[in-house]
């Protein structure tokens, strides 16, 4: 049954009794118990709760119970709940001030925290994102990491709230089944995705705190040590964090944009030509260093189709090698700038 009053603290039994009273106008616990098929004691307990919330009144003494007008009664409950939430928010602000006061002069050993286990890392990552105001920067070396997460998690809600999010994917991460669907969901939500060399999984939040694997090889691509859970370092403002931020900025500038959304033509290049949606997607994966076999699998094409379309791209660019194709694609702005290539195919 749809719970209409749950948000204002009304229990399921209380809501059932209140709705019955609205229909009957007035009744006592015995009558309500019979009509609802509930024990009289259970109805009496629900009526007591409704009376405390101002949703019912008793006519006189032990007389029948009357339901209060829904608009007035529910509005009063909403105002009360809002006041409680405001008090909780004020209390949270006070606690935050106490926390900041206690951590203002962090000792060296407090600048770095070790978090053990994927579940604990994922939970801490989610908690940290609630305080983000500007941006989240992520390295994805492997999709087998608590930082890669799920498209339904808080990272996408942050994007909807105006927080910028940039993710740099390693080439090997793009060889994971269904990874393009998840990246597409990420970019559709407003995120930016690129591909290039990635040294390790990494998340940087507002350039104030970072999460990075404790040991080399614990980004999901190394051989796990039997019986040992992966651990991550949580790094707060210090020189090491500044280095990680600079590393992200440098690798991001050198990375190639990822085009994973089919059905959207690529940007128009300097020569006025543009690529079809599929060719833009294919070229993006090709420049990311993926093999023809991997590209075919990710795009759901045959290997021969991929190779034919690559040859057509080379013809359009007027080049003989794939290296030259990459250079021409960058020069012409094919990934950053209908389709001349499609027109030639139709002809």
Give the strand tally: 11
Which structural class do the helices and strands define? alpha+beta
By CATH, the superfamily of the largest domain comes out as Endonuclease Chain A
Average pLDDT, rounded to a whole number, is 78
- Please indicate the percent range of residues in DSSP E strands (runs of 2 or more): 5-15%
User: CA-to-CA gap between the ends?
Assistant: 60 Å
> Portion of residues in helices?
40-55%
CATH architectural arrangement of the largest domain: 2-Layer Sandwich
Rg measurement, Å: 29 Å
* Oligomeric assembly: single chain
Low-confidence stretches: 219-224, 263-270, 338-347
Total domain modules: 3
InterPro entries: Sig_transdc_resp-reg_C-effctor, TrmB-like, Tscrpt_reg_LuxR_C, Tscrpt_reg_TrmB_N, WH-like_DNA-bd_sf, WH_DNA-bd_sf
Protein name: Transcriptional regulator
Organism: Carbonactinospora thermoautotrophica
Domain HTH luxR-type: 272-329
How is this structure best described in words?
With 347 residues, this protein is an alpha+beta fold. The chain is 48% helix and 13% strand. Strands 4-10-9-8-5-6-7-11 form an 8-stranded mixed sheet, sandwiched between helices. The model is unreliable at 219-224, 263-270 and 338-347 (pLDDT under 50). One of its GO terms (biological process) is regulation of DNA-templated transcription. It comes from Carbonactinospora thermoautotrophica. Pfam families: TrmB.
């Amino acid at each position: 049954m749809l719970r209409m009053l749950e948000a204002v603290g009304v229990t399921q039994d209380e809501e059932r009794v209140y709705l019955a009273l609205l229909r009957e106008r007035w009744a006592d616990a015995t009558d309500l118990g019979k009509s609802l098929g509930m024990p009289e004691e259970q109805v009496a307990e629900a009526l007591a709760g409704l009376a405390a919330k101002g949703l019912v009144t008793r006519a006189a003494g032990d007389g029948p119970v009357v339901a209060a007008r829904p608009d007035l009664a529910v509005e009063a409950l909403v105002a009360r709940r809002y006041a409680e939430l405001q008090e909780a928010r004020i209390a949270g602000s006070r606690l935050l001030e106490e926390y900041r006061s206690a951590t203002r002069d962090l000792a060296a050993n407090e600048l770095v925290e070790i978090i053990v286990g994927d579940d604990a890392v994922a939970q801490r990552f989610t908690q940290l994102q609630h305080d983000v105001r500007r941006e989240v920067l992520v390295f994805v070396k492997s999709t087998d990491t608590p930082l890669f997460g799920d498209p339904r998690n808080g990272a996408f809600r942050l994007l909807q709230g105006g927080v910028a999010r940039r993710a740099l994917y390693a080439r090997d991460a793009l060889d994971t089944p269904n990874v393009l669907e998840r990246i597409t969901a990420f970019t559709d939500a407003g995120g930016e995705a690129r591909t290039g060399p990635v040294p390790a999984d990494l998340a940087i939040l507002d350039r104030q705190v970072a999460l990075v694997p404790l040991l080399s090889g614990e980004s999901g691509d190394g051989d796990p040590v039997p019986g040992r859970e992966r651990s991550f370092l949580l790094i707060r403002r210090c020189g090491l964090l500044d280095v990680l931020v600079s590393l992200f900025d440098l690798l991001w500038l050198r990375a190639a944009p990822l085009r994973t959304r089919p059905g959207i033509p690529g940007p128009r290049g300097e020569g006025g030509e543009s690529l079809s949606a599929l060719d833009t997607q294919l070229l993006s994966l090709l420049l990311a260093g993926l093999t023809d076999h991997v590209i075919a699998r990710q795009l759901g094409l045959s290997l021969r189709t991929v190779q034919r379309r690559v040859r057509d791209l080379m013809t359009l660019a007027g080049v003989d090698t794939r290296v030259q194709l990459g250079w021409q694609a960058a020069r012409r702005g094919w990934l950053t700038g209908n389709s001349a290539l499609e027109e030639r195919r139709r002809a």
